[in-house]
Amino acid sequence: MGLTKTEMFTDLQNEIALFSKAFGHPARVAILQHLFKIEGCICGDLVEEIGLAQPTISQHLKELKLLGLIKGNVEGTSICYCIDEENWTNMKKVMLQFLDQDIANKKCC
Amino acid sequence: MGLTKTEMFTDLQNEIALFSKAFGHPARVAILQHLFKIEGCICGDLVEEIGLAQPTISQHLKELKLLGLIKGNVEGTSICYCIDEENWTNMKKVMLQFLDQDIANKKCC
DNA sequence: TAAGTTCATTGCAATATTACGATTATATAT
DNA sequence: ATATATAATCGTAATATTGCAATGAACTTA
Question: What positions does the domain HTH arsR-type occupy (chains A, B) (predicted)?
Fold first, then answer.
């Protein structure tokens, strides 16, 4: 059905899934890496850097912005996108909590 | 088109995206959390624990297994699934490298 | 052997995602 | 006002994902 049953999971589980989904496409990974490398950025750059069409990049940026991981400031005719450091730090905490789990005992396998 | 153009990205970017995709569904997050909490596990448990139908859980397990994050050993009529610690550690390295990036300079925004 | 248990696979329907051409907004410059 | 530049939005096509009923495979027990 393509419809995730979010109501049967905890808020934390859904949050982890949402962040992960954002990183679940190499274009968005590349965009974020680029935004980290350069101090601030413009969408046009990304279209060249990544190699996808402008509407596609714009759509990926929108998703990242909706999640709060990046923010965009109007700067003349172009828009300056950059990492939202505070939200990125919060996201990192949530993700690390998940990734850094240790195995309890281990009886089988 | 629903088709990710993986060929235009680096291996690392695609790897990060693949791992993230696996975590991009709350059921798979819940499965992994459960496998961490309990030492080894059986699929039947998960069906009760998670609340989705058995074929659905089985499918999620298959994806996680394909990625190498979990492994399953036959144990009588049931199968004991558990975290593949070595691969989990490797995955963690890749993901941390991505999540722990720091901003270069920061000129705008 | 027959019945039961457990999990995988198949097949399908519904929804989501990805990508891009065409168009539209917004601002700047002439 | 007109032209230009940049990025968002719309519309659409193709593919992917999610979920489950039905079925199948493998093993255990009576």
Answer: 8-103
Q: Chain C: nucleotides under 7 Å from a protein CB?
A: 4-11, 13-22, 26-28
Residue A30 has pLDDT above 90, yes or no: yes
Helix (H, G, I), strand (E, B) or coil at B70: strand
Q: Looking at the domain that runs over A11-96, which CATH code has it been given?
A: 1.10.10.10
Query: Which residues is A73 bridged to in the sheet?
Result: A80
| Exposure string for A18-32, b = 16+ CB within 10 A, e = fewer | bbbbbbbbbbbbbbb
Whether residues A106 and B50 touch (CB distance < 8 A) is answered with: no
Q: Do A9 and B26 touch (CB under 8 A)?
A: yes
Q: Give CA B14 to chain center in angstroms.
A: 14
Of B6, B14, B25, the CB nearest to A4: B25
Would you state the pLDDT for residue B83? 94
* Residue for token pair 């088709």: B3
Contact pairs from chain A to chain B, CB under 8 Å? 157
Query: How far apart are alpha carbons A76 and A87 in whole angstroms?
Result: 26
